[in-house]
Amino acid sequence: LGCSRFWYLCFSWMDVFLSIIFSYCLLVHPIFQLLQGSYSFFNCSNLWGSACLCSFYCIKIANFRNRFFIYLKIKIDRMVPWLLLGSVVLSLIIGILVYNTIDKAVGKNLNFTCRESLQKATIGIEEHFFPLYFFTGFLYTTSFIAVIFSAVFLLFSLWRHKHKMQTNSTSSLSMEAHIRAMKSILSFFIMYSINFMFLILTLIYSLKHQNHVIFLGYTIQ
Question: How far is CA 36 from CA 7, 26, 70, 103, 196, in A?
Fold first, then answer.
């Protein structure tokens, strides 16, 4: 998760700096395609890795008497490697789709001797890219929903357990540990929500060619 987050931010800033300062570099095949494909791969793996790990900690730590939840608690250790592998494979598919879509759009709409070729490429990419925008937006939203449910269930379970400890007069150290855990989960949830909000905004404003808004979104992320 740390590696995917690190490389996602690296490719985000590379995209910004190349498009603003060295825009002619993006005209060289296949720099633009590789940049966008790699960005999409690491972005998707970052989001789904977060969702998988958040679900894992929710199932391992939270206590509910539901049969399905107990079954998941028993099986989750075996499921996690497959979930992480599935998120990597899904991210790889997204990255390949983005690369191919941009490559087709660039090949069909670009004349590399023309100075306005980058703008023409963007217009061509929009026409081909629109279904993929909906698909990636759906995947981002699904991972965000998974994080929301995991964080809410975990916070509720910890809060209920803390309430029981208060009634049973448990030691203050255990109470502090539970409060710290709840604060950590809440802060993660807030940061993830901000990240998701600006991710959707950069996705929307990239269609409108408003680079300053995209730059602001990358900075906050």
Answer: 12, 11, 41, 10, 18
* Distance between CA atoms of residues 218 and 68, nearest Å: 40
Place of tokens 């998760």: 1
Helix (H) or strand (E) holding 21: none
**What are 92-136's pLDDT values in tens digits?**
998 998 888 878 776 655 544 444 444 555 544 555 567 777 887
Q: Shortest CA distance to 106 belongs to which of 134, 136, 128?
A: 128
Helix (H, G, I), strand (E, B) or coil at 114: coil
Query: Alpha-carbon distance 77 to 217, whole Å?
Result: 36
74 by Cβ neighbours in 10 Å (0-12 / 13-18 / 19+) ranks as exposed
